[in-house]
Amino acid sequence: MATAPDTDFAPTSHKGLTYPFGGAEPVAGDVFEVAPGIDWVRLKIPGPLKHVNCWLLADTDGDALVDTGMNTAEARDAWKAIFNGPKSGVRITRMIGTHFHPDHIGLAGWMCDHHAAPSS
């Protein structure tokens, strides 16, 4: 699991947005801890946006998942790598979709089936 360094990055800005970790970002199949109990996952998607951000939030007996990524083989493989690697043995306790776009909820059914998690 990658962890945000305390002093090894410099915030950057672009078009009015500030990126607190500069150019640091999670790599495919890994998570990036942005704060204790908050892990960032970045999944590739087709099209001009190129990626979607997903979040794993520490919950009572596992992690709550905010957004899932698009239902593609590449996204499923990335999640498999995460749950066989840095999040091995971690249960998804609930699913939260921020909005009804396929890049945010496309894998909700697949993820709920694999983790027996309810969706919200």
Structure description:
There is one protein chain. The protein is an alpha/beta fold and 120 residues long. 20% of the residues lie in helices and 32% in strands. The protein has helices at residues 73-84, 102-105, 108-115; strands at residues 2-3, 12-14, 17-19, 32-35, 38-44, 51-59, 62-66, 92-96. The strands form 2 sheets. The protein has a 6-stranded mixed β-sheet with strand order 1-4-5-6-7-8. A two-stranded antiparallel ribbon has the order 2-3. The longest helix is centred in the middle third of the chain and has 12 residues, at 73-84. It is globular and about 40 Å long. The model has no long low-confidence stretch (mean pLDDT 89).
Main traits of this protein?
3 helices; 8 strands; six-stranded mixed sheet; alpha/beta; two-stranded antiparallel sheet; 120 residues; globular; single chain
Quick overview of this protein structure:
The protein is an alpha/beta fold. The protein has 3 helices and 8 strands.
**H/E element string?**
EEEEEEEHEHH
What value does the average pLDDT take? 89
The count of strands amounts to 8
Enumerate the spans where pLDDT stays under 50 for 5 or more consecutive residues.
Answer: none
Rg computed from alpha carbons, rounded to a whole number of angstroms: 14 Å
The amount of helix comes to 10-25%
Q: N- to C-terminal separation?
A: 27 Å
- Biggest sheet character: 6 strands, mixed
Biggest sheet, spatial arrangement of strands: 1-4-5-6-7-8
Please tell me what the overall shape is: globular
Strand composition percent? 25-35%
SS-derived structural category: alpha/beta
Tell me the number of helical segments per DSSP (H or I, 4 or more residues long). Answer: 3
